[in-house]
Amino acid sequence: MAWLIFDGNLAIETWQSRSILAVVYLGVFGSLLGFIAYFYVLQHLAPSTVALVTLITPVFAMLLGAQLNNETLSPSLILGAGFVLSGLALYQFGQRLLKLFWQPKSANSANPS
């Protein structure tokens, strides 16, 4: 709608093949396969775990952009991705880590007499 209001010009001759392939790729892989994978995972995992996929998607997109499109990764992007991955790891493995590293002292060991 904004395109129609502001410009309304469709200059097909300026389209690049890489841009067209990117749109087709996003339409096929980003939508179709993404939804298929999402609903498959939703059937096999808890919905609260599946909801975390939306948090890790930007991290994967950033890494794919750096790998496939030679995009630069700034230190703040890497730090942010580390925070996201750390948060997801704490959510996923937090209870196990808590049990592993923090064991409450029993009542018998508190009173040695």
Automatic annotation (TrEMBL):
* Superkingdom of the organism of origin: Bacteria
Location relative to the cell: Membrane
Q: Which Gene3D superfamilies does the record match to this protein? A: 1.10.3730.20
Q: Where are the transmembrane segments?
A: 20-42, 49-68, 74-93
Q: By what name is this protein known?
A: EamA domain-containing protein
Entry-linked InterPro entries: AA-Vitamin_Transporters, EamA_dom, EmrE-like
Instruction: Give the family this protein belongs to, as stated in its UniProt record.
Output: Belongs to the EamA transporter family.
**What organism is recorded for this protein?**
Shewanella sairae
Q: Which UniProt keywords apply?
A: Membrane, Transmembrane, Transmembrane helix
Q: Which Pfam families match?
A: EamA
PANTHER family xref list: EAMA DOMAIN-CONTAINING PROTEIN (PTHR32322:SF2), INNER MEMBRANE TRANSPORTER (PTHR32322)
Q: How does it sit in the membrane?
A: Multi-pass membrane protein
Q: Which residues form the EamA domain?
A: 12-90
Q: Has UniProt tagged this entry with the keyword Membrane?
A: yes
